[in-house]
Write a structure and sequence with these properties.
- The chain is an all-alpha fold.
- Helix 1 runs antiparallel to helix 2.
Length: about 80
């Protein structure tokens, strides 16, 4: 998977989590939506971890100073269009 596709996958899953979260705000007892949210949340975590492993952190949570310092500032940022 190339960088653009990997980032797009993270974005799609993040969007799905937000939408499901908004739905669950008004339907907190919907068991199917809760299960889907949990599944999408796990998929998002895996997609984000895979992206960050290959291309570097997407946010502060992904920075591992022990591994490579504060090097995330040296690569292209996701919004710079180089992904």
């Amino acid at each position: 998977m190339d960088r653009t596709k990997a980032l797009r996958r993270v974005q799609e899953l993040n969007f799905a989590m937000i939408e499901l979260g908004l739905y669950l705000n008004t339907h907190p007892c919907d068991e199917n939506a809760l299960m889907l949210y949990e599944r999408v949340q796990l998929m998002h975590g895996a997609a984000k971890a895979k992206y960050e492993e290959c291309y570097g952190p997407l946010s502060y949570e992904g920075v591992i100073p022990e591994k490579d310092g504060w090097s995330w500032v040296h690569g292209p940022w996701p919004w710079e269009g180089e992904c």
